[in-house]
TrEMBL record:
This is Carbohydrate esterase. Residues 31-259 form the Sialate O-acetylesterase domain. Pfam families: SASA. The keyword rRNA processing does not apply. Residues 1-18 form the signal peptide. The keyword Glycoprotein does not apply. Keywords: Hydrolase, Signal. One of its GO terms (molecular function) is hydrolase activity. PANTHER family: ESTERASE, PUTATIVE (DUF303)-RELATED. The lineage of its organism: Eukaryota, Viridiplantae, Streptophyta, Embryophyta, Tracheophyta.
Amino acid sequence: MSSLIWLVLLSCSTLVISTKTASEANASQGKSIFILAGQSNMAGRGGIKRGMWDRYVPPECKPSQKVLRFNAQQKWEKAQPPLHRDIDYLKTCGIGPGLAFANSVLKKNLSIGDIGLVPCAIGGTQISEWRRGGPLYKQLLSRAHAALQGGGIIRAILWYQGESDTRSQEDAKLYKSRLQKFFTDIRSDLKLPKLPVIQVALASAEGPYIDEVRKAQLEIDLPNVKCVDAKGMKIGHDGLHLSTDGEVQVGKMMADAFAQFMA
Ligand SMILES: *[C@@H]1O[C@H](CO)[C@@H](O)[C@H](O)[C@H]1NC(C)=O
Ligand SMILES: *[C@@H]1O[C@H](CO)[C@@H](O)[C@H](O)[C@H]1NC(C)=O
């Protein structure tokens, strides 16, 4: 009798222990991964003056135990700004939209676990440089695959790019088809054909053809692609880069768009 009780107790406690270990392992592996790509306003130039970052971190971008960053050495670490410092390393990076996005998503209680950000944006790049098979495309894919090694699921691509495609009428004209092809190729190579994409319609530009590029972005015709409009966001003295405040607003808008995908 008593040995039977012991046996039952013993097997119950073993069961409890192994379940707990499994779910704890699950929690650390169940990250929600977001790919950040595009050019400088995704990499982040908020708070840059005379080539230096002012080191101001707004409350919306404060680091959290729940937000990780996949660094250039392909290791997860606590996300601290600037998120792209070792990726877009030829330029000085400041505040971008990534941390404001992540913190805003966490506040929405979407039950998606911890957040893993995979920075891939490079300043000054045109959409043609992101074509399938090119170095930027390959780097994005290899970082995405490496980020998945520790478990987790890719929830979305956050894309902010196009300022450099406003310099020539030819590039502006081809922007929509190039962008659609880029999204389609990336989804196909990640084997996630319906992967949500949240992209930004330009607030600023390097050349005169901003309206053409914005039109392409706002009219993009693919399922599961949402566009948030950065027009009117605060821009810094260079007339091109979003201020810290502008980046925070864009990050929050992208979080709102992501929440719509989860609704
Ligand atoms: C681990 O996560 C998967 C996928 O989210 C889920 O189906 C499974 O039930 C989880 N296992 C435990 C032990 O929590
Ligand atoms: C999320 O959960 C926290 C803690 O339970 C709560 O204070 C907060 O109001 C919730 N936010 C939303 C948007 O539901």
